[in-house]
Each structure stands twice: as C-alpha cells, then as structure tokens.
Amino acid sequence: MGLTGEARAALDKLSGDLLRNGIHSHSELRQGAVAAMLLDVISEWANIVHESAASARMAEIKAGMGETWFAWSGPTTVSPGSNIAAYYRIQGPNLVIEYAPQRLGGDPSLHVHTMYRDPTNDYGWKFAAK
Fold first, then answer.
1. What phi and psi, each to the nearest 5 degrees, are found at residue 93?
2. How far apart are CA 61 and CA 48, in angstroms?
3. Start-to-end CA span in the chain (Å)
4. In what order do the strands lie in the sheet with 112-117?
5. Sign, CA torsion 70/74/75/81
6. Which residue among 2, 5, 114, 121 is least crowded, i.e. fewest CB within 10 A of its CB?
7. What are the backbone dihedrals phi and psi of residue 4, each rounded to the nearest 5 degrees, phi first?
8. Considering its fold, how many domains does the chain have in total?
9. What does the pLDDT read at residue 101?
10. Which residues have C-beta within 8 Å of that of residue 121, sequence separation ≥ 6?
C-alpha cells in the first residue's frame, strides 16, 4: 500500500521524532502532535472502506489510543517517490497494522507486504453476532 503524501510525511516525522528526538515513552504516543501523526498513518488503512464505516472505525481506534503502540525497525528516511524501506507495526486493543518491506531483488522498497486487522473482529464476528 502506497501512503499518500500527507501520511508519508506524518510517518517520516513520527519515526524521526521517535528515534532522533528521544520520544521513547508510551505516554508520549498519546499526546498532541505525535498522536495526531500516528492517527494520520492509521487512517490510511482505516479509510479504505466506505466513509460511514471508516468514521466509526476511526472512533474505535481513537478510543483505544491509550493502549496503542508503535514499533519501527530500519532507516528513518525515504527517497522521494519510493516506498519506505523500514518495517513498522502499530498495535492497539482493536488494531494491528504491519508494513514489512521484503528484500526481493535487493531493494526492500520495491516489494512490500502489509497487513491491517481488527483482532476483536476476526472473520467479521461482530457483524455475524447481530
């Protein structure tokens, strides 16, 4: 999944803030600009569905931000027009996102695996129970 310009900028800034500027505590992910950047990246996955469902989904995710974690492994910069070559994971009570570049052909930015999941709704159980 290619990120939009705004989400890519947010992810670049988020990773840079976390790694270069000493944002290491979980509480800092829940505050102000850092939380807004993380939500901007999350919205790239949550907003791929119809707008009415996306709004409800983002409300669920925002409610769980106090228990949401961000992990990053790899470079903190990206070449313009390229995918990010670093792995990251965002995980909360009702959200798991993984972005995992693969080294096929040597350049991990050319082949990316990504996953978006709501562990509280595997196989649509929330909807099937209604």
1. -65, -25
2. 15
3. 32
4. 69-73, 87-92, 95-101, 112-117
5. negative
6. 5
7. -70, 165
8. 1
9. 86
10. 94, 127
Supply the pLDDT for residue 9: 64
Q: Which residue has the tokens 């670049």?
A: 12
Here the contacts of 122-129 (C-beta below 8 Å, separation 24 or greater) are none
- One-letter amino acid for residue 42 of the chain: I
Domain holding 81, by residue range, is 5-128
Report whether 43 contacts 7 (CB < 8 A): yes
pLDDT at 82 over 60: yes
Nearest-angstrom CA–CA distance, 98 and 103: 16
Tokens found for residue 97: 């996102």
